[in-house]
Amino acid sequence: MTLDWRWLPLAATNFILLFLTAMVNDGLAPWNLSLFLAGPCVVWAALRLETGPLVLCVLLSGLAGDALLPSPNGFLMTLFALSAGVIAMVRPTLGRAGRSHQLVLAWALNAVYYLAFTLWAATQGTPFSTAFIERLAVDFGLSQLLLLPVGLWFFDFQESVLRLAHLPVAQEPAGRP
């Protein structure tokens, strides 16, 4: 049995997405806005990789995200691992082809991750003033709105990187019907 090396370029593309999001957030800081676009990071890998390579991809991507986001160590990695496990369990019913499944999953995961980060911020003593709630709503809405074009670009980018690395794009996990 050989190791599926697709996990490494997928983890690298996840790091690129998270890094680009951090750079955009730095530019949006004067307007008191921020984006959260971690939703697409797990989707492609969770739909197509077997358990071993999926774990490697999720751990490396999560650690990179934890380094870039203001959260406790392992927070995003845990969210990625939980969501990848859920997707891997239900993927026979979801299907693996088509952007519609990927975009819906990315949109849902982004909302869950954003909620988790918001709840974590609430435990840090951040006061829930009206201005804070308005900012959360604006940031969430902007992030979810931009997730459609970013998600489409990102999934194409992942497949392009896999093709560039001469790795199979549409290959199903080994041992699956």
Notes on the protein architecture:
By secondary structure, the protein is mostly helical. It has one domain. The protein is built from six helices and no strands. It has helices at 7-28, 43-48, 51-68, 75-94, 99-123, 130-164. It is globular.
Features of the shown structure:
single chain; about 180 residues; mainly alpha; about 0% strand; disordered C terminus
How do the helices and strands line up, and which of them pair or pack?
Elements: H1 7-28, H2 43-48, H3 51-68, H4 75-94, H5 99-123, H6 130-164
Helix pairs in contact: 1-3, 1-6, 3-4, 4-5, 5-6
Tally of individual domains: 1
Query: What integer is the average pLDDT?
Result: 88
The major beta sheet can be summarized as: none
Secondary structure class reads: mainly alpha
Order of helices and strands: HHHHHH
Distance between the termini: 17 Å
Q: Tell me what portion of residues adopts beta-strand conformation.
A: under 5%
Poorly predicted spans: 173-177
How many H/I helices? Answer: 6
Radius of gyration: 16 Å
- DSSP E strands, number: 0
Q: Could you give a quick summary of the protein structure above?
A:
The chain is mainly alpha-helical and 177 residues long. It is built from 6 helices and no strands.
